[in-house]
Amino acid sequence: MRRFTSAVLSSLLAFAGLTAMASTPAEADTGVEYVALGDSYASGVGAGPYDAASGDCKRSPLNYAHQWAAANPEYTLKDLSCSGATIADVRNNQLSALSSSTNLVTLTVGGNDAQFSSVAQGCLTESDAYCRTATLWMSSYARNQLVDSLASLYTDIKSRAPHALVLVFGYPQVLSPSGTCPVIDLSAAKRTYMNGFADALAEGGQAAAAKAGVYFVDMRKQFAGHGACGSDSWFNDLTNAAAVFHPNAAGYTQGYAARFKAIWG
């Protein structure tokens, strides 16, 4: 991978459209350490196959951390991401991997704190009115309380890994506005409500990143035109109920990993 001076890397991050309020990140060096943190979107749920040693955390070699690390072998990857992780889980079970020797940290978390799975299930099985109420309620949470919780976590990460570049990868919109969903279809209204909730999660993560002084990677443009139930979906639908509305292999490769590599390496 190319070695960047601090000034060049800072310019590249700004050009790539990242939200940044941090001091200039340290230059990568030979034999550098990369720690990946987060929930199922970070661990690669939906990409498969999973590393048997990761158990219920369901870490896939196709998650964005492993794909980027494979292209940058000078980095030693420690992947602590875990399906189902909340902010508290990341703090209690994953941050111990960080140290002053850590050079790069990536993270996706917050969806479980905002009850994404429960909201999605309600939208799939209940009325349009129920879906609207649920998504509006949790969207308010994502834009308010969640911001402080995420900012506190990001600050903890910086304190444990003071020399690391911290990249927070956000959540994309999940649903195509048109097309038919197999098993259980979704009305146009429900799709709008759920995508609005995804926007709230992205905006909350972005606000928290600015507050804590880390870099936010907005994934919504990268996934545009590839929502679930559309003709070129990068998501699992209800035909894979265990990973519904998580990216599929194309989503992790052409979505997350491609965006990561476009930013750095």
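Above is the first protein from milestone M3; the second protein from the same milestone is given next.
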Amino acid sequence: MFKEGSFLKELVKRFTSDEVPGLSAQLSYFFLLSLFPFLIFLITLLGYLPIAQEDVLNTIKQFAPGESMQLINDTLNQILNDKNGKLLSFGIIATLWSASNGINAIVRAFNKAYDVEESRSFFVSRGMAILLTIAMVFVIIVALLLPVFGKEIGLFIFSHFGVSAQFLTIWNTMRWLVSGVILFIVFTALYFVAPNKRLHLKDGIPGAIAATIGWIAVSLAFSYYVGNFANYSATYGSIGGIIVLMVWLYLSGMIIILGGEFNALLYKRKHALK
């Protein structure tokens, strides 16, 4: 049975006991390793898709802090200006390996949240991590395609079915909410599949909602803080952009892990009452 106390107090207690800050730092390291290979792969792939490089960068720019966005932009331009036909294959391999390491770190964090040991074999767990990575890449590409085609779809409906102009305005607003829906889908999949625990899909939804709202709020708040108050370049010099990026990835990792802790605590409370 659970000790008396609010849900929030128990969550704060687990924040310390399950070493969430340390696991978040580990996760941010793997995020950083996989970020640029993933973007190289994605932008190299754009030659085969009706998406401009600006669409990808503008999507990231919605949430990324200013100095980190400049770092991402400069690094990508430097890499992509060095023409190399092997960039796409390198991006695929590096993305799958680095991102699957990040998924494995998430798996360990979620197992700790549910107080279970990892009993799946190396090949099963690595295969699951790679499949989750591929699924997330696919979902992100769809998320990028929807805004590109959203306007054309809205115009088609507007012109062929005589829908009011107000609908087109609503459509243009709704298609930018896609990023939140995509985040929710990715988080739900992570919280359902990653832990070594037999769960129902609905068990992952509360944490996915909390993580989606939390990640967007924290990203926007941190971006505002960096843009208006903090000056990391004055403190860290030329690596200021890297520091900003690492802090953002650290906060992102913490939100993801806390979403898993949120789900685990709800799960334990629910089954303790049965």
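Note on the second protein: Residues 122-161 form the longest helix (40 residues).
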